[in-house]
TrEMBL record, chains A, B, C, D:
Protein name: HD domain-containing protein
Coiled-coil residue windows: none
PANTHER family for this protein: DEOXYNUCLEOSIDE TRIPHOSPHATE TRIPHOSPHOHYDROLASE (PTHR11373), DEOXYNUCLEOSIDE TRIPHOSPHATE TRIPHOSPHOHYDROLASE SAMHD1 (PTHR11373:SF4)
High-level lineage: Bacteria, Bacillati, Bacillota, Bacilli, Lactobacillales
Residues of the HD/PDEase domain: 55-193
Superkingdom of the source species: Bacteria
């Protein structure tokens, strides 16, 4: 493996990490690759800027941030815990480069509005990440191959967790990894909230490698606790915000409708989304995928705003003009009412296939390792002075309170006009009928509450 | 004039101002208008994010910020300096709404990469701003008309400086106005630099209305001084950065080339930029203009990357992949060398009409009022306790140092490959010839310096 | 009641609140009173600066901060919830002044290193606060009397919770009051930690008066939750820090020993602490108390460093030179071992009456109202849109996790030399004997663990 | 020279630098020495907290901050510019320890309210610094001697500029040194102003050693410029504030009067300031000096508040209760009026020897090297790529504007009561007479302006 250093360190100015230094030429070349630059055109938080207006940052700056945190961890490990003999559980700095590359590239396969897009077009950003790394057609692959023929697959294996050294894997992907630490701080910075703040410097100082992966010195227990609490609060406050989800529902409606129109051969020439056609047709290649970004999507929404298909035109305008669907919470005991509500929405003139939706947002903020779980988590370990490990939630009552508990909610989405007040001149009887199913922001059974 | 207040104040979370409150329904409706929402898709600093990666914020958040500063000034004026008798030079709160609307809408006519776009397509964002405000086809106009039939024109007159009350005009547009104060703070926040920081709270506290406009209490002199110095430094450090300008030169090349290809009838069907055609044809209407945003531009660059025209394809890829042209400073004594340099660039295989450019960035950071100037500035006045006015630069040696002095530079742009080292296997003789014209980042005369 | 306004608002620059404005002359006069200025000489966090070096701020700046938060709450209440008819549960702005005065003066009776001092000399800062407010000898009393003859007692009654309006009382003293909100933010700022940060602006925006006191709008639930978690973390991380407590133990030893020497008539003339004598004699008046501050205490420690009494001299030097006692955690099952440990400390040459101590730090971070409790807490209420109240912990799993749970620990303190390593040339057998009682920072039973 | 490293890095939490790491045992021992701990009891900005209330930080935290900046510079130099051959002008890391010690100890000789105290008692904090380092009686000396017998003198020579390597000297003392960089940032943090902010990280990155000392890479020119401007603004805004100086005048009056009373044998037993007597007697030793701190001074002011000497009692109370003298600006053309003004102050019942004073505050924010100057400055050099040096002011118009220009003012101080309004019941004819000499905050000649 040959690692060329830059003649002079290069720095990127970053609002979260201040300066991000780069010393290896491979890293600089990767940053300058078309596949990475493309991430400048994909917002990190999708539609969340429609609620938290400052959230306009992209996956590009996040990716550099993750690289930077991983770099600091490697630097610290090499300074404080360098390996002496193979298998001693300390840090082997020959794994630095694969770590940094994986950190930088971990999101390279993300597309515009990934979650929604994948749902409709059955793409898979994880598979595409692997492809970008390993397919000889990409610049990223060429750069990685320059290190060694096996290097692209090695980097990919870190990202998909199959890399043998758990220290490297956990640095990139675990319950407290460079990815999450960067996005919490960055999303907090750009949304202007302070829920996501925690003491990154301290956490980095107390991380330490051991044979089983990464553990934390006891003096940093509270900083780790604070990180978990911050993460919990960011999900509650930012990532699960009902209004962003109302925008995502609109987006789903647009793509769903467009796909159907295409399949029915109803797109006019003027509506044809040239760069999306491979996806409508279900036969896209990597180059097609890499041509997509947020701007491509909204450009075609401009086209579709003028469609003769009313649903497509209206939904596209709603997205561009930021008019989210409204919502009410429901649960297992009220879910059976949703078909009746959707029917009223139909009666009011909105095709409920597009204008109503169920949307759930759930997260497991922290969990202990559970071998019986579908996706067992690598729990957070505090390493005591005698080198015994204690799982975080046994030490922190705050963390214990949220350990293993799924949080989130389920919401039913519908057009805002359904909430028109009976006092309004635009009121329709269907709206009144619909409103009988709602109280205090939740779906209720009108038969029981007799409104 | 009827002003409807919201039943409950609405707040927007903002990273710069924390919370931005809205109390008037007109303001909320304007924020929600399609013309304003469109600004979410136009970056405030154009291509500057390619240098300062955090600079991904849009004209939308800036516009709300300007509104918010103007709102605070109005609130302060009404609390501390309410008019008692007409013409007493104090604040008349009946001008609050026109002020707030002008603040919010002052950038509404901006387009994607405005500066470059206007240069090629001869659009004029100031004229379009007026049109958006006054043309009955827009939602903004409908909302403003709801206040009174004359209101749209009044708001427009604040923005074009013809409104009678200089207090209102200066709040939106002067050497220390809500617009500049917001963008300095916001650009500093997102670039992660602190050059743009100054004490906004203090400046707002010491502003005061008088018959001639807005003056400042002496206790705030140093805060105002600090603002001027910050502004100077932001121009030097951020706005004039040679690399951003190298991206703008690429952009100019793309649009120029595309326009020529269109005019020569050489666009294939696949290359046709549907939403840009009205501009190529020189006959666009307001709706055409309002359909443009950053994403529309880059979408067509994706199309053009695959053009059979090599210049268009290459320049488009340079833009998307962030490969700016490089530059060297020149001045009046070296400007005559540029044609020779351009010729060498041609010889090296790059059409110098697109691959070379002169680019100047100049700014006048602060000036006194000069009636003989082409654009006389409203100077900054400190109002002493005896109500006499003193112009800022007479009190501040720092401000005096930069008053009336144009700062900036002129640069000559060319492809980076021209700088290839003679040691490189890819070196060509033309590169060597070209490099004889360069020393220490500036253009020199090889005949004199004899390299 | 006559309230004179200042001709021009006066502002105090503050690192936490930026600008603190004062409009009422009474407030300005109180700030300028000798009793308030004295608080500039008393550190807010006592000895905590010996651990968190930036914690050098005083009770003076905190007091202005509490005033400022109370002022903002009053301003918000008056703007959004002004009373219309007596008894409507809304805000009556005629209570503004009593609120502001109580906020400003709530800590006026605090002395130097209050906690320890009170313990030894049986002073009571709450009683002294009342006395400073109501005794005609003080400047504070004269200023308050200028408002009305009853005003001093009214302000005092807010501070001791007997004031009739619960809105006023809760603003100054409750589980989420101006006092705590200021000290969490201020202590976080000066210690340089971010545990204490929460969204003050948001909390102030969602506070609202009701007949039973103060409640919070549901949109601020998460901000309130975040405040409770911050408070919990500050206690864990800052206020309970074992090293600060080790300095407090030293302080207790000094004062205890000095008192005994005085009572035994063993103070030489050179050691006599003129300003402390009234306290040694147990007959001090208010003027004596007001002459005490941090500097007075340490000045006499300088005297005592040269005492012929070895304990007094040594302990005084330990305090001035920052040499805290060390500690180990103990609990109910190991408490019985402490006498044996103290005995070994005696054998090693340290009088265990001064050189050992038990120290507990406990806090109840949040609790629901419990009428059977000794000190029932005013619980935090979220007011739903239908005006029903819900107690915070029923809505927040994080808060529920810490509700009603006392947190803290008990520690046994002893001289650091007892931990000398057996490898050291200065090792003594007593140290070894002592160390058998310790493992991993806790007291253990050597009979059981057989070390 | 033997340098023992700590088994594990120790960190100090600091609000300005976040974490300050210590790796050498010598540094930790010095921090823990009584002479350093004493600096915890001496405020960095003396009386400035009476104007900027947050400015309660001490010389101790500043000293650690200077150490930390010097440490970062050494780390950077060793990484980027390690010497290869003696005399190559690069960094020789064997000078790290002497640099760090000098940085940490540079202020060790400062006393309480140094400036005023030195003026009255003819102490010299620079001489005392040298003594603390080199006198065998101190703990600091013992620790330094532990490194090598010559080490104490070496550290002292860095502080007094006689150390041979200019890199080391300039790091601690030059126009842009660790000392100034820390105090600007720290004073800005604690006063809550942002004038003192500059980009420390960037400046540290562009510093580089050369044979003549320390230079800066051109890419950091603007950061250095920003530092100079910040420094200029902090002097104008904070350090020269007229009200702080009014407190210093009070302090001078107290000490002057007390000294005279002592010399006249008029101190009663109750007034005797035991720890100050050696200074009154003019024969103090190092131990006497080290027993002084802010608290000792104010303790004796408590004593003196009750003096039968009215001047001493009144001035002491003014200091403790924060009642500064007021002031007016004067200049060379009005200086001749001051005796007449002082005479009126005498007539009004205030002994003008104590109750009036002239006070000048001057600073030279930046200057070029001038061999003819009394104290030639080491100018700031930008090292171009070809290794030529350019002096900062030739590159920066902002710096040029303030280069070589002394800024500041001269003020005449007097009791506030002299400004009593003629409308007041407490008005006296002397006040009116006095006020004829004042206009708009300046001294004027009533004979000319004829008020």
């Amino acid at each position: 493996m040959k690692i060329e250093m830059l003649p002079r360190e290069k720095v990127f100015r970053d609002p979260v990490h201040n300066y991000i230094p780069v010393r290896e030429r491979v890293i600089l070349d990767l940053i300058n690759s078309p596949e990475m630059q493309r991430l400048r055109r994909i917002k990190q938080l999708g539609v969340a800027n429609t609620v938290f207006q400052g959230a306009e940052h992209t996956r590009f700056t996040h990716s550099l941030g993750v690289y930077n945190i991983a770099r600091e961890i490697c630097d610290n490990f090499q300074q404080d815990y360098p390996t002496k003999t193979p298998g001693d559980g300390l840090w082997d700095d020959s794994e630095r480069l694969v770590t940094l590359c994986a950190a930088l590239l971990h999101d390279i396969g993300h597309g515009a509005y990934s979650h929604t897009f994948e749902h409709i077009f059955h793409t898979d950003h994880e598979a595409i990440t692997r492809q970008i790394l390993t397919d000889p057609s990409t610049t990223v692959n060429a750069i990685l191959r320059g290190v060694s023929p096996e290097f692209p697959a090695q980097v990919a294996s870190v990202i998909d967790h199959s890399y043998p050294n758990p220290q490297v894997v956990q640095m990139i992907s675990s319950q407290i990894d460079a990815d999450r630490m960067d996005y919490l701080l960055r999303d907090a910075y750009h949304t202007g909230t302070n829920y996501g703040l925690f003491d990154l410097t301290r956490i980095l100082r107390v991380m330490r490698p051991y044979a089983g992966g990464i553990a934390f010195n006891p003096s940093g227990m509270h900083a780790v606790e604070d990180y978990i609490v911050s993460r919990f609060q960011m999900y509650q406050q930012i990532y699960f915000h009902p209004v962003s989800r109302g925008m995502e529902v609109v987006l789903t409606g647009i793509l769903q409708r467009a796909k159907e129109l295409y399949e029915d051969g109803k797109f006019t020439e003027d509506e044809k989304p040239r760069l999306l056609l491979p996806f409508f047709e279900g036969k896209f290649d990597l180059a097609d995928y890499l041509a997509l970004d947020d701007g491509v999507m909204t450009t075609y929404f401009h086209y579709w705003m003028k469609s003769t298909d009313h649903v497509l035109a209206d939904m596209s305008a709603r997205f561009l003009d930021r008019r989210p669907l409204k919502s009410a919470q429901f649960n297992h005991s009220t879910a059976h009412l949703l078909p009746a509500m959707a029917k009223i929405v139909d009666e009011a003139g909105f095709d409920s296939r597009y204008y109503t939706a169920k949307n759930s947002s759930y997260d497991l903020p922290y969990d202990q390792y559970d071998p019986t779980s579908a996706t067992p988590k690598t729990q957070i370990e505090i390493m005591e002075r005698d080198n015994t490990l204690e799982e975080l939630s046994t030490l922190s009552p705050l963390v214990k309170a949220i350990t293993g508990k799924v949080t989130g909610d389920e919401r039913f989405y519908f057009p805002k006009v359904m909430l028109t007040s009976p006092d309004s001149p635009d009121f329709k009887p269907e709206y009144g009928k619909f409103q009988r199913y709602l109280a205090a922001g939740s779906v209720i059974d009108p038969a029981i509450y007799g409104k």
